[in-house]
Amino acid sequence: MARVFNFSAGPSALPEEVLNEAAAEMLDCNGTGQSVMEMSHRSKAYEPIIAECEALVRELLAVPENYKVLFLQGGASTQFAMIPMNLKKNGKAAYINTGVWSKKAIAEAKKYLTVDVLATSEDKTFSYIPKVEPIVGDYDYVHYTMNNTIMGTKWSYIPEAKRPDGSEIPLVTDASSCILSEPLDISKFGVVYAGAQKNLAPAGVTLVIIREDLIPETMPVENTPTMLQYKIHADAGSMYNTPPCYTIYMMGKVLKWIKKNGGAEGMAKRNQEKADLFYDYLDNSDFYHATAEKGSRSLMNIPFLTKYDGEEATAINKKFVAEAAAAGLVNLAGHRLVGGMRASIYNAMSLEGVKALIAFMDKFAKEN
Ligand SMILES: *Cc1c(COP(=O)(O)O)cnc(C)c1O
User: Which numbered atom of ligand 1 lies nearest the CA of 10?
Assistant: First the structure.
């Protein structure tokens, strides 16, 4: 079967070039006579693979020297717990609630410290990013979800936060669905974390970029499992236990592909072009409309509805998703919380794929 255009929210499409390279190296990687899947993570053959992946993360995101780059397991969801468990000092943190993933992060943090939710966009089904005035408070950190995968919104600014004494409060952000989709000034953050399966790699690894002074020497939460301590992983170069070797290898390949295509800036240009084309189409259609408000729109995840309501909408959405799949445009069903459809157009999605989707949508609108 021919390759489809895959609009999945995650795990999501990978660059074809990367898959072909991985296929060519499947049985013999770099003349070792082994697949990367079979290598010891402590072998001479594997060492350069993880080292190169880290070097590329540092290069493409211009990670400052005083930050650690960690490759962890347990997904972004494990970071929801690791953040409060490691960053707790006075015992109070601020969160902004912009959707499902924020809520999950908040619920997890509440197990370990007091959470102040300073702003939310729940009043309008999370269809916008609230304007957060400069935060002043005695918070251990401020957490927000940079790109809201389900709601299709993205922060267009970095919030400011200071303690009453004027010192900086570390910003922590979940960048799972937007990492390396555009440049990001890491120095503005204490921690940036991202599950890899949207923009970086297959599922199985979580990228954590953390400022060194935020890694506690002794854990503030008693009996924190060893695997949930940043220090353990930082001191061991992400090799305290067996890392997800193959996924890290794949991430290295995706990062090389990003570098070859202009790095974070190249991705931003490519993604802006795709998103502009798609939003323009939606904004000028009388059949479809985007759910996210202008000014808060994601470049990566675009939920949209048709003009139909209620049961009619349910039927038309189902028809859309089935006919799109038959036309080689897959994984377009919307999340149940937003309804309708959602096109996730991460880095690996080509402009050609977006154009094919729009052409299909136009035909579908005329027929329905
Ligand atoms: C997908 C996603 C998650 C969950 O990631 P896991 O790796 O499955 O735990 C968390 N936050 C955001 C923004 C996501 O898009």
Answer: 1
Q: Which atom of ligand 1 is nearest to the CA of 148?
A: 13
Helical ranges in 29-94 per DSSP H = 47-60, 75-87
pLDDT digits (tens, 9 = 90+) for 114-138: 999 999 999 999 999 999 999 999 9
The residue annotated as part of the active site, out of 68, 101, 154, 256, is 101
* Peptide linkage before 11 cis (omega within 30 of 0): yes
Say how far apart CA 19 and CA 253 lie, in whole Å.
9
Catalytic site includes residue 257: no
Q: Render the burial of 59-79: b for 16+ CB within 10 Å, e for the rest.
A: ebbebeeebbbbbbbbbbebb
DSSP letters spanning 251-262: HHHHHHHHHHTT
Q: Which of 209, 165, 217 is nearest to 189 (CA)?
A: 209
The residue type of 292 is A
pLDDT digits 0-9 by tens, 35-84:
999 999 999 999 999 999 999 999 999 999 999 999 999 999 999 999 99
Helices (H), 208-342: 230-235, 245-260, 263-283, 310-326
What digits encode the pLDDT tens for the residues 83-111? 999 999 999 999 999 999 999 999 999 99
| Diameter over CA atoms, the chain | 64
Distance from the CA of 149 to the center of ligand 1, in angstroms? 8
Query: Which residues lie with the beta carbon below 6 Å from any ligand 1 atom?
Result: 10, 75-77, 101, 145, 149, 174, 176-177, 195, 198
- Which of the residues 68, 88, 154, 198 is marked catalytic? 198
Residue pair 117/95 in contact by the 8 Å Cβ criterion: yes
